[in-house]
Amino acid sequence: MADRPSPRALPDELPQEEAVTRYRRHAEIPGWHQDALTGATAVVVGVGALGTETARLLAQAGVGRLVLCDPDDVDESNLSRGALFTPADVGRPKAEAAAAALTALVPGVRAEARHAELSAGVGLAELRSADLVLSCLDSIAARVSLTRRCALVGAGLLDAGTHPWGGEVRHYVPGGACFGCGLTPAERETADDPWSCARPVAVASHGASAPVSALTAAWLTTTALRVLFGLTEPAAITRVEPVPGTAYRLAAERDPDCPLHERIEPESVTRTPVAAVDRVGELLALVAADEIALSWNPFGTPPPTTIRLRDAAPDATLASLRVAPRELIPVVVPGDPARTRYLELAAEGEGNR
Ligand SMILES: [Zn+2]
User: What is the reported pLDDT for 14?
Assistant: First the structure.
């Protein structure tokens, strides 16, 4: 992808000799490239039954950096299915509990928790930079939101879901069919758009047992690793059905009317030294008088009423308004869409100052 980091040799925290020993059985697998995993970043969106198992498998395989995003806390009912949760985690944010468990399980892994919904937890520049984005979500609305955000920055997406006795793994490549291509127009409506008042589609989530989640997560992770290794992996939908005992692929067909393929042109993006932890006034200093900088999430005293950042207190931090780390901030000029541009937030501590 656009600014994929070059692979590092091995994580600094893990002595070379220990790492070689840990992964020596991987070296016997045809096509396996441990270094490709060590330097990789995977974003896992949704840290429930499917997400925890997927994150565990990616970390144990040796993926060096995992960004875990989920707005929910661990509930008692998660303990029967979440691969990384213990009773002591009940009430704790899922992303934080999972990140802590991964760090204990795999020394050297960088597991970062984002206790937020996707559009507030992972910025568009992070999705663009990631080597893999994995959707382990439980609703159509959330998947549509992630699909749209990945398309905006040309990021591929691996999506998986479960039903009571089986699962599905969907591999989407940039420019090809997306999750939304298989939906009706009503199902595609989403609130993750600063110019839209559409509400997410309410979709009931279906429960699945731990083994079905683990089976689907294993299939998802196998596909993810092959993508990281550069092995041929077709864009397709794979259905895994333990009952009656089959797995088969379906072609993912592009719908020419699917509106989720809008792309932010790279030349419309300007990098800034401002990070999400910085103040609104610092960002607005980069915006012309006739321009309006927008948030992807409404903010303000409940209920949230505005997406115009100039409506916020200048000394408020962008993060307090639910602006994600490394977000691309839309800047528009009313009546002149050709002047729409984006300001890229810096990573925390990495601004050009
Ligand atoms: Zn589509």
Answer: 66
**Averaged pLDDT for residues 80-105:** 96
Distance 172 CA to ligand 1 centre (A): 10
CATH 3.30.450 fits 266-346, yes or no: no
CATH class of the region 16-251: alpha beta
pLDDT attached to residue 192: 41
Q: What pLDDT is attached to residue 190?
A: 52
pLDDT band of residue 13 (cuts 50, 70, 90) is: low
Q: Which long-range contacts (CB under 8 A, 24 or more apart) does 146-150 make?
A: 146/45, 146/118, 147/172, 147/178, 147/179, 147/180, 147/260, 148/180, 148/190, 148/192, 148/193, 148/260, 148/262, 149/118, 149/119, 149/124, 149/192, 150/178
Cα(260) to centroid(ligand 1), Å: 5
Note the pLDDT tens digit of each residue in 51-85: 999 999 999 999 999 999 999 999 999 999 888 99
For ion ligand 1, residues whose CB falls within 5 Å? 178, 180-181, 258, 260
Residue 185 CA to ligand 1 centre (angstroms): 11
Q: What is the distance in A from the centroid of ligand 1 to the CA of 310?
A: 33
